[in-house]
Amino acid sequence: MTKRTAIMKALIQRLKDNDQNLVTLSLDLRENRDKDQLNELMFLLEGNKTVKTLFIKGNPLNGIQFAEYIAKLLQSNQTITQFKWHGRLQADQTPISIIAAGLRNNQTLTSFELICCEIKNEGAEAIALALGKNQSLITLNLDSNRIESRGIKSLALSVQEHKTLKVFNLGAIRFVI
């Protein structure tokens, strides 16, 4: 058993036990290719009542499959208040649209960050639509993506209407006018 596998098994056990000390979870999944462990991890996170902050780095599966995990997690978990994903999805914007659908129906998250995820106009528009339904977000961070003027306009219009959003970061965005 590799050290990585042993760590994942220990983490999975702590999630099964609903360990009250496990409130922040930072996962670097770039090298993890064990689909069974990832399936179990995501399943346990869906019903977990202790993890409030979830940081994920990397995308161990294809973009759509992992986006479906994240969307389901956002729809079913009522404990996580901060979600951050750092890492490339894929050029196709379908995964971003799937995640945005999960965000739309979530009323628990206060901070949502998708950094370096290759978000383009279509993905930004999906997030803008989700903001119309989500009224819990205080922070939205879309730093280091590929959103151009059309997507920025959609986000700006949505942010203007949003009642709770206080921090909106586009960071290193390429502006094309």
Can you tell me about this structure?
This protein is an alpha/beta fold. It has a single domain (3-169), classed as Leucine-rich repeat, LRR (right-handed beta-alpha superhelix). Helix content is 44%, strand content 15%. It is built from 6 helices and 6 strands; from the N terminus they run H-E-H-E-H-E-H-E-H-E-H-E. A 6-stranded parallel sheet has the order 1-2-3-4-5-6, with no helix packed on it. Helix 5 (121-133) links the parallel strand 4 (111-115) and strand 5. The radius of gyration is 16 Å and the shape is globular.
List strands and helices in order, with pairings.
Elements: H1 3-16, E1 24-28, H2 35-47, E2 53-57, H3 63-76, E3 82-86, H4 94-104, E4 111-115, H5 121-133, E5 139-141, H6 149-161, E6 167-169
Helix pairs in contact: 1-2, 2-3, 3-4, 4-5, 5-6
Strand arrangement across the biggest beta sheet: 1-2-3-4-5-6
Provide the number of structural domains: 1
Order of helices and strands: HEHEHEHEHEHE
Tell me the number of helical segments per DSSP (H or I, 4 or more residues long): 6
Query: Helices and strands: which structural class?
Result: alpha/beta
Quickly give the CATH architecture: Alpha-Beta Horseshoe
- By CATH, the superfamily comes out as Ribonuclease Inhibitor
Number of strands: 6
Q: Give the termini distance in whole angstroms.
A: 53 Å
At the fold tier of CATH, the topology name is Leucine-rich repeat, LRR (right-handed beta-alpha superhelix)
The coarse overall form would be globular
What profile does the largest beta sheet have? 6 strands, parallel
Highest-level CATH class: Alpha Beta
Low-confidence stretches: none
- What percent of the residues sit in helical stretches (DSSP H or I)? 40-55%
Percent of sequence in beta strands: 5-15%
The radius of gyration over CA amounts to 16 Å
Averaging pLDDT over every residue, what do you get? Answer: 89
